[in-house]
Input
Amino acid sequence: MDDLVVLRVGTKILIPFILLFALYVQFHGDYGPGGGFQAGVIFAAAYVLYALVFGIGNALRVMPAKVVYACGAVGVMIFVGTGFVTMGLGGVFLDYNVLAHEPSHGQHYGIIAVELGVLVTVFGVMVAIFYAFAGRRRLDP
Amino acid sequence: MIEFVDVALLVLLAITGVTIIRLRNLFAAVMMAGIYSLLSAALFVVMDAVDVAFTEAAVGAGISTVLMLGTLALVGHQEKKPRRPAIVPLFVVLVTGGILVYGTSQMPPFGHADNPIHQHVAPYYLEESEHDIEIPNVVTSVLSSYRGYDTMGETAVVFTAMVGVLLLLARGPLPRRVLLGGEWRTVRPGTTREELRAEAAHALDADGSDGDGSGGTTPGSPGSEDIVGEQGGKHG
Amino acid sequence: MIETVLDYASWASILGGLFFMVVGTIGVLRLPDVFTRLHAAGMTDTMGAGLLILGMSFQTVVGIMHGETSYWSVLIRLVFVYAFLMFTSPISTHALARAAIVSGLEPWTNDHEDDA
Output
């Protein structure tokens, strides 16, 4: 295990920056390229990097499989929930104009909420699929 | 100049594709697939579709390479030699490709202002997005606001993909890693330590004394635990 | 004056970076085994890309001296890209070399010349 020290230290240094970059992509998506999907994939990539270097066992301690599965569902619920909130406020489904007094501000809030939903779903799904593949192993003959 | 870049990237894409077909070593094929994704991402950048390029680079060259390597760890990394030449698939591919190439002759010229895609709703989005939504990136405003229903459907599709993968792969209890007689073994779920000890004692006639605790998980040891799935039918 | 010097330095760096890129590529194709090829590939990342980024930074500095304040953000980004490369390239080279050693490859030595 000790001969992995270069990888481990390097990964420890890199992961915070990758997560920060994912957040940048998420919240800068209104102004430049990026958005929920890309940010979710980058989040998942950082997490998969952790799992590859530190082992699936440790990754599972960070985020058990059930949490990851829940993420996949919660994201869709955030997205659809935004639609229901706009309905409750008197608009039509996913009509963000009613979320604030100023319609364009409402659009901003709505887009942020919806992108968050996409982020959570994509992160959960990517990590769940990674777990599903990496968690299997051959039985010893 | 930009045509030169286009041609160079497309030629490299074609070379990579042919290489992937001809490779028998699947590890190398996976790496070439990653290169293919990276090249297509570069092509998207040249075509000013940075959002798509971003996604392609992150998913195609990043995550999917890792997933394919995870698959190769299970199925082995050498492709079997085909028993006979694949005449019918070759015919199907050639005919489909020929029809597609024929279809491009009817395509409107790339990037032309009179193309159908620029006649319908796109001009409205491009002109009014600044006023309606007040964010600079039109891609985001189309994706999240104008076409919110579509994106909701896409999110649901991604979720469905997860459900499908989990239904196919994540069934049953997990294989266990057990430390037995000084070495780690992967065993069927539900196998008790006593059975393994008996088996080991039967096999080795000795050395069954230092089997360790249940589940065999040492904190901090990578891969000492499993999450999902069992590997059926391999145990003798 | 100083701008001219920076311009020449920038082109020298860019040409030097291209030289190392070409040498690294030839090395990857021609050297005998994984470890020597890794050395060549690592050199394209550190020296090749490093010198290219240095040359580009000189160009942005020239731009800043011409009053293009927006080039500051380009310069900062270049510095970050360089730092990122300096982290990831040696780590990935190390990981590859380690994987090669663990999987049992022996470094090439001069006495295996029977097939040369």
